[in-house]
Write a structure and sequence with these properties.
Layout: H1 3-32, E1 36-43, E2 48-55, E3 60-67, E4 74-79, E5 82-88, E6 102-108, E7 112-118, E8 121-122, E9 131-133
Parallel strand pairs: 1-8
Antiparallel strand pairs: 1-2, 2-5, 3-4, 3-6, 6-7, 7-9
Length: about 140
């Protein structure tokens, strides 16, 4: 096989993988967006991030919350279908909130394990889009 054919095959496989990933993300979003709510709001005056989770079906048995990118990793497990927690933060991180996504692994009696991710946003700013995955 010559180099041009090999490159064409590699690029085709990569393109197919990207398209498949986008389609799967869209399907997950449609499936879970009306079920799970996750928000992470930074209150500068109070120096904390308030994280709220709610499962509208009330079929979540447990969930594991993690804030990534922190010096000391933050992780907490919750029982039940909803929670609200305040996590202390002195200020917005040097490189912005995108460097510290909030992730949640939900154990749901109907769907099994579902991953939910959202970025922290400042109070008064719109919430980011939820990203769903099936780990």
């Amino acid at each position: 096989m010559n180099k041009k054919t090999t490159l064409a095959v590699v690029f085709t496989i990569i393109a197919f993988g990207i398209v498949l990933s986008v389609v799967q993300n869209m399907q997950n979003s449609e499936k879970y967006s009306g079920v799970f709510y996750l928000d992470a709001t930074f209150y500068n005056d109070k120096k904390y991030v308030e994280i709220k989770f709610d499962d509208l079906t009330q079929k979540t048995t447990s969930s594991v919350l993690e804030i990534q990118g922190m010096e000391t990793s933050f992780q907490k497990t919750f029982a039940g279908s909803n929670f609200t927690i305040q996590v202390p933060f002195d200020s917005v991180p040097k490189y912005g909130w995108k460097t510290m996504p909030v992730t949640l692994i939900v154990e749901h009696s109907e769907f099994g394990k579902v991953g939910v991710k959202v970025d922290i946003h400042d109070f008064g700013e719109p919430s980011g889009n939820l990203i769903f995955s099936e780990p």
